[in-house]
Amino acid sequence: MDETYQIYVNRVAQLTIQATYQTQLQNIQKSPKFEQGKAISFPGYTVLTPPQIDDTLNREFYYQLQAIQQQLIEQIEPGMLTWLPPESFHLTLADLIWDKRYQEAVQDHPSFDDKIKACIQHSFDNYPKINLENNEPKWQLFGLLIFPRALVVGLVPCDELSYEKIIQLRRAIYQNMDLIGLGIQQQYHFTAHITLGYFSENISNLNRDKFASILTNFNDKWLETEPQVLKIREVELRKFEDMITYLPSDDNPKIEL
């Protein structure tokens, strides 16, 4: 399902232009993951880079991302988004299972948590067999993107090898037959992003033209500055309770890329 390197870069670039913003803003919705600015229960599993609070490798990158979020908070009308705490910032590499599907899976398989950990460990064990150079993938911040329920920063690979490493990891995960047997399948094209905030119940009052202009101005400024780069050295499976709480554990499967 995932695209070639060049198709991916072209698609993400298309998502950062003002005309695309104008179209997407017609379809934004309140996120069901938050109520009155607070995260609600939304349990599940994901494969991600360590959240900002645990990531010592990318401190400068996340410092800059936090500054960007703060500037957006100052420019966007209050109450339009529920902004995520910077310590929860992370890059999701493979969505797995969440919310009602996760709750149903636990009911059907009482040892589901152990099974999903075993499946992901198996995928990680198979990944090193792929003959790729031993360099950590690097992805650069490219621009702000509008998702149906969230405002995010999009990332593109710094080179084709960085892209291929992540796509091969996703294949090792999503083509794992034991994981498919648990009812987990790939559902989306990969769009590398870090979420800054989710749209709130107040979006009916959003000035969409102004919002699109703010995002475009941010993207124009980034074209004139040194790209901010996220280094992806370690990836792990984590359980989450909601969209700000990703639980560390000594028995979470991990892999160094």
Automatic annotation (TrEMBL):
Signal peptide: none annotated. Transmembrane segments: none annotated. Residues 35-103 form the DUF1868 domain. This is DUF1868 domain-containing protein. Gene3D superfamilies: Cyclic phosphodiesterase. SUPFAM superfamilies: LigT-like. It comes from Rippkaea orientalis (strain PCC 8801 / RF-1).
